[in-house]
Amino acid sequence: MDLETFEWLLTAPGQELLRIAAEAYADHDGDPVRAASAVRRTEPDAERAAAALTQVSLRVKGVAKFGPEAVQMYFTPDALEQATRLRVATHRASRLAAYAPSSVVDLGCSIGGDLIAFARAGLTAAGVDLDPVRVAIARANLAALGLPGATMVADATTLDLAPFGVAFADPARRSGRGRTFNVDDWTPPWSFVERLQQGASVVKVAPGIPHDLVAPGVEGEWVSDDGALKEAVLWSGPLATAARRATVIGDGGLASITDEDDPYTGAPRPVSDLGGYLYEPDDAVIRAGLVTAVAAGVDGGLLDEHIAWVTSTSAFRTPFARSYRVLEEVPYREKGLRAALRERGVGVLAIKTRGVDVVPEQLRRRLSLKGDNSATLVLTRIAGQGRALLVEPL
């Protein structure tokens, strides 16, 4: 979609076409061929018809990230895929608002997902991007939701950032060959991020970023949403309040744990014998290197020094880990395991693996499960030896 076509969609005829496209999409249950045929009967211009129908389908997909308001917004396929989930962006904006900066500039605002969150948090925000279409979409999204904010086409690396209280950046992690894990291939590149970190900045990065790239004095925060690890964020200058933080977001709210909650920072990792309970740390906790903080919180230790399973003799509920009661140990070898599961009538089996070379889907097929019972199996190593445990969620 080019800029001219998008701007036409914002006109009265364009809005009417969007309405017609939405009806066609619903009437034909999202079938793109039949919906397109219906839209083309109203709009003979192929590009405008395709743009309207594409917006409708993207709005439907956007609900998963932006909630019901997605049906009022505008997207491009790539920008929607790369956009931050609403709950994650809201957390970041709320944390930034607590610092009460004079303003924030979004250096690569794309379609304005973070600008929306900043505006809702009461921040004075402006966004820039190299792509004129994305800038126009960001502007339209703010207007559609009745939110303040300024946008313009500009090269973030050439801007004078002195007038802004905080700089926010979400470098594009794609090259001409697709997704890249080389920070020098990011746009803007890592050297630009390092310059931003000399002041108050917030930089969203891939959750797999190596810890050694997080400079001293910069806080690395790993964030998960509903159990799925979504991003890492680097907070610099006065915005940094810890070295490492894990934040988990769920339907019950939000919780954070930091290196200051970990009594084992700089000390040997605690290893304990198998207790009556197992704890599976959230991926944000694992990436933040805070598994031992979870162990401390449940009065336990690690099953193995190198594996992210925590065990305890006590039952706890914690937002930072899934909790299980250990029912019994079963044979680790496949033949004995198959016999044990058949003896217990297990026909449905959830398999959790860490520290072992097992593909759960392949193992499940080989076990030829039969029975009316369901179970959860943990396959891991304890003191270097493979172990199999039947557990039940708390």
Q: What is the element layout, followed by pairings?
A:
Layout: H1 3-9, H2 12-27, H3 32-40, H4 46-66, H5 77-82, H6 86-98, E1 104-107, H7 113-120, E2 125-129, H8 132-144, E3 150-153, E4 166-169, E5 174-175, E6 178-179, H9 190-196, E7 201-205, E8 219-225, E9 228-235, E10 244-250, E11 253-258, E12 277-281, H10 283-287, H11 291-297, E13 301-304, E14 307-312, E15 321-330, H12 334-343, E16 346-353, H13 360-367, E17 373-382, E18 385-393
Parallel strand pairs: 1-2, 1-4, 2-3, 4-7, 8-10, 16-17
Antiparallel strand pairs: 5-6, 7-9, 8-9, 10-11, 12-14, 12-15, 13-14, 15-18, 17-18
Please, could you describe this protein's structure?
There is one protein chain. This protein is α/β, with parallel strands linked by helices. It folds into 4 domains: 3-72; 81-258, Rossmann fold; 261-321, no CATH class; 328-393. It has 13 helices and 18 strands. It has helices spanning 3-9, 12-27, 32-40, 46-66, 77-82, 86-98, 113-120, 132-144, 190-196, 283-287, 291-297, 334-343, 360-367, and strands at 104-107, 125-129, 150-153, 166-169, 174-175, 178-179, 201-205, 219-225, 228-235, 244-250, 253-258, 277-281, 301-304, 307-312, 321-330, 346-353, 373-382, 385-393. The protein has a 9-stranded mixed beta sheet with strand order 3-2-1-4-7-9-8-10-11. The protein has a 7-stranded mixed beta sheet with strand order 13-14-12-15-18-17-16. Strands 5-6 form a two-stranded antiparallel ribbon. β17 and β18 form a beta hairpin. α1 crosses α4 and α2 (12-27) crosses α3. It is globular, with a radius of gyration of 25 Å. The two termini are 50 Å apart. 39% of the residues are buried. The model has no long low-confidence stretch (mean pLDDT 95).
